[in-house]
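Weekly structure sync, notes
Attendees: PL (lead), two postdocs, one rotation student
Agenda item 3: pending single-chain targets
PL asked that the sequence for the first pending target be pasted directly into the notes so everyone works from the same version. It is reproduced below exactly as submitted, 121 residues in total.
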Amino acid sequence: MVFYLNELSVFGHGPETAKMLQGSTPHDQLLIQISDSFAGLLLFAVGFLLFMVSFVKDRDFQSFFAKGCIILHIFMALWRIYFERRLEDLARDWPRQLVGDIVLSLSWLFFLVYSWREKYD
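Predicted structure, written out during the meeting:
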């Protein structure tokens, strides 16, 4: 993802917006690259955490983790509603990303409903 960042930006946002998102000064470009690196590190950490949690057999912990993921996706949706829609460069992308956050939180909610069904059957 880091090696083809420009191509991913062009694919996701279009060529004009991708050029604006790269930054206009070397300082801005460095800050954006550092931010992208931290985002990649966060994605790796979340994936590794999900991998570790998948081996836990405790249902209470699994439901606790699912509730935390639901809250995280709700906060991400609120962030997109209140802040990202105000950025004119990203204004056309936030509804699609908002739908993605809602779908991901619903997937965790369905996991909770399924685990409650198994627990009370």
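Discussion points:
- The mean pLDDT is 81.
- The helical segments are 5-13, 15-21, 26-53, 59-82, 94-120.
Action: rotation student to compare against the earlier draft before next sync.
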